[in-house]
Amino acid sequence: MAKSIVLDGVHHYEGKVTTFVLITCFVAAMGGLLFGYDLGITGGVTSMEPFLKKFFPVVHKQMKDKSENKSQYCKFDNQLLTLFTSSLYLAALVASFFASTTTRMLGRKISMLIGGLFFLVGSLLNGFAMNIEMLIIGRILLGFGMGFCNQSVPVYLSEMAPAKIRGALNIGFQMMITLGNLIANLINYGTSKHENGWRLSLGLAVVPAIVLCIGSVCVVETPNSLIERGKYGQAKEMLQKIRGTEKIDEEYQDLVDASETAKMVEHPWKNIGSPKYRPQLIFCTFIPTFQQLTGINVIMFYAPVLFQILGFGNDASLMSAVITGAVNVVATLVSIVTVDRFGRRVLLLEGGMQMIICQVIIGIMIGITFGLNGQGAFSKAQADILLFFICAYVAAFAWSWGPLGWLVPSEICSLEIRPAGQAINVATNMLFTFAIAQVFLTMLCHIKFGLFFLFAGFVVIMTIFVAVFLPETKNVPIEEMNRLWTSHWFWTKIVPK
Fold first, then answer.
1. How does it sit in the membrane (predicted)?
2. Alpha-carbon distance 40 to 37, whole Å?
């Protein structure tokens, strides 16, 4: 029987970080590349004149309106245009619940493959779109793919990774999101000068979709999923392979015990609402909610559009989006390096405070320059300062609430409620992503620069929430995560011992 070390009340199993598990997790994290690519491609495409002329002529007319009484804040305010962006996330919300059942009954691999296939078909429809209906249907299919991938990939990564580097490997998903976003911004910059460049931008999503489909066939299933479906022999062999040692008896037994406990739960959706799982339900709901209320997707979705509203030229707006995308990638690397060293709480708290400061400064600068009537323009020096604080805001999110918004919910749920917990996490995330994407341009038109103060207020609330209620999950094995709540000053009053 292999022995484990007990530190801080939790087990630290034997085993090493194998090349096999690193490669497997890298392939699985490709699901994030598609997510990020879509985040980045949408804002650039919706700022391209040929695309607007073909599908949104009303918006194109508004954009060209140079009359003095036309507010800069309202140049892109159009519900059909925002529906092009937001329909994907509404579809992802619906798909996440079907993905929950698929992930549990058929395994994580199958769920990732289904997501890849949806992405592939949706990308082709968007690239060859001849009318708005074809465009929206393609977006909906992309949303189904996102729902399946966002459900299965974070769970897959958390289950495959050793506890001591689980944070870093799980953030591989967010790293791929940021890379996909940067690639999309670069492609938009290159295609924006061509009449049908938008088709290339949308259609190139087939490349990562094909990679994900092939990768999901090639990767192995997690031991947790194999045990969950009664394949105990395969699970033990797989655990030995991914840990690089035959001394996995204790960890294997803990996984089997956790699975047996899970099978005793007949109604995981009902049980996640019981007092025993109240902390998981709250965090799987509140963390994705707060993640979107930071306002980050204002930048991720609408960066080129936002920069045009603020007076940047078309090329300058697309290049500014590239710069923020590059900052996003570098800052996510910072998170990968630090998350298992300093812990989740430190990054979330520091990131929150930095975002508050940046949003307040951005709001003040826009307010001073544009006022309430939306008339004005930034000088070159002012634009550079504004871009700096937007980048500082993006960096803060990218090493805190961006990756940890996916990591924490995926690691705190025990096996018996994990599919339900992750489905709630994804569905909540997609609901608020849809809402922000759909109403942002309208809110900017009406609330104006005050919108940035509103998001700063939400960040204040969520930073206090983390400081008071979130225990540190660093280095805690997933199957022992339930012990955290009974030792926390607040949750011990709610969770039965």
1. Multi-pass membrane protein
2. 5
Please state which CATH class domain 14-493 belongs to. Answer: mainly alpha
In the numeric block, which tokens belong to residue 476? 């805690």
Positive or negative, the CA dihedral 107, 113, 118, 123 is positive
**Helical residues (DSSP H) of 310-343, grouped into ranges:** 314-342
Q: What is the CA radius of gyration of the chain?
A: 23
Residue 283 CB contacts under 8 Å (≥ 6 apart), including other chains:
408, 409, 412, 470
422: nearest Cα among 162, 148, 26: 148
List per-residue pLDDT tens for the chain, 497 residues long: 344 444 444 455 555 667 777 777 777 777 788 888 887 888 788 878 889 888 888 877 776 666 555 566 676 777 778 888 788 888 988 887 788 788 888 888 899 899 999 999 999 999 999 998 999 999 999 999 988 988 888 778 777 777 677 777 777 777 888 888 889 989 988 898 888 899 999 999 998 899 889 888 888 888 888 888 888 888 888 888 877 777 778 878 878 887 777 676 666 677 788 888 899 999 999 999 999 999 887 777 666 667 776 667 667 777 788 888 899 899 989 988 898 889 899 999 999 999 999 999 999 998 888 777 767 777 888 888 888 999 999 999 999 998 898 888 878 887 678 778 878 888 898 889 888 878 877 887 888 888 889 999 999 999 999 999 999 988 787 767 778 888 888 998 888 87
> What does the DSSP 8-state code read for residue 460?
H
Element containing residue 12 per DSSP (H, E): strand 10-12
Structure tokens at 236: 């033990």
Supply φ then ψ for residue 6, to 5 degrees.
Answer: -110, 115
**Where do we find the tokens 């507010």?**
71
Distance CA(389)–CA(395), nearest Å, equals 10
104, 117 contact by CB (below 8 A): no
Nearest to residue 293, comparing CAs of 156, 417, 451? 451
From the CB of residue 400, how many other CB atoms can be counted at a distance below 10 Å? 29
